[in-house]
Amino acid sequence: MSGNEAVLAPELAVSEWFNTPTPLTLAALRGRPVFLHAFQLLCPGCVAQAIPQVQRIERVFAESDLQIIGIHTVFEHQAAMSPVTLRAFLHEYRLRSPVAVDLAEEGSDVPVTMRRFGLQGTPSSVLIGRDGTILHHVFGLEDDLAVGARIAMALSGPLRALCPVRRQQAQMAAAPGDARRRSRPMSGELVKGNGSGAVYGNRTRLPSVKGWCPNR
Question: Which CATH superfamily is 14-19+30-203 part of?
């Protein structure tokens, strides 16, 4: 994302929280960088690569004011990936940071937060600056060094004013009438990335990308 475009991150839509005594909102976290990671507990790339990376981020930035938030965004096999199963998963994998269950929406396989952020599949991550704007958005897994460098820059970055036009665009993207509302991520096989820095993923069906865990 270009540094000249300040796009306000849409608010999270959550049905249940884990690892936090009270619900979190991006609005209340304004002033702190946020690393948002989307995953599914049955996504091979998430379990093998993304979750271990999140654990490393938790350790490295434990003394900073970075807020890490996991979004369990289920667009397939919903019955098998219930909150009860997720609770056991988080216990076994020792994730300490807050994790939210993306809010399901009647009539759509794509949960609300996934749609609002335009996530293409799992794993995905979004880095949000202190001012609440999106600094980086990626589908798949990036190298630890690149992720760490971006987080460090976000931690040192100042607040900035959001252009009213960008604010309106973000609000429209989160509206119920969003054109992406009916899009469906699809399941894909585990594959290597194509040089973009992303390694593994489950992706939505887009013409330019093959094989990651998408929506159907």
Answer: Glutaredoxin (3.40.30.10)
pTM for this model (two decimals): 0.75
DSSP secondary structure code for residue 185 in this structure: B
Question: pLDDT tier at 45 (50, 70, 90 boundaries)?
Answer: very high
- What are the DSSP calls for 79-145, one per residue? GGS-HHHHHHHHHHHT--S-EEEEPPBTTBSS-HHHHHHT--EESEEEEE-TTSBEEEEEES---HH
Instruction: Give the up-direction half-sphere exposure of residue 183: CA atoms within 13 A in the CB hemisphere.
Output: 19
The count of C-alpha atoms lying within 13 angstroms of the C-alpha of 31, restricted to the half-sphere facing its C-beta, is 2
113 and 34 Cβ atoms separated by less than 8 Å: no
Residue 59, classed as helix, strand or coil, is helix
157-185: burial string, b at 16+ Cβ within 10 Å, e else:
eeeeeeeeeebeebeebbeeebeeeebeb
pLDDT tens digits for 63-107? 999 999 999 998 877 777 788 899 999 999 889 999 999 999 888
Please list the residues that pair with 35 across neighbouring strands.
Answer: 68, 127
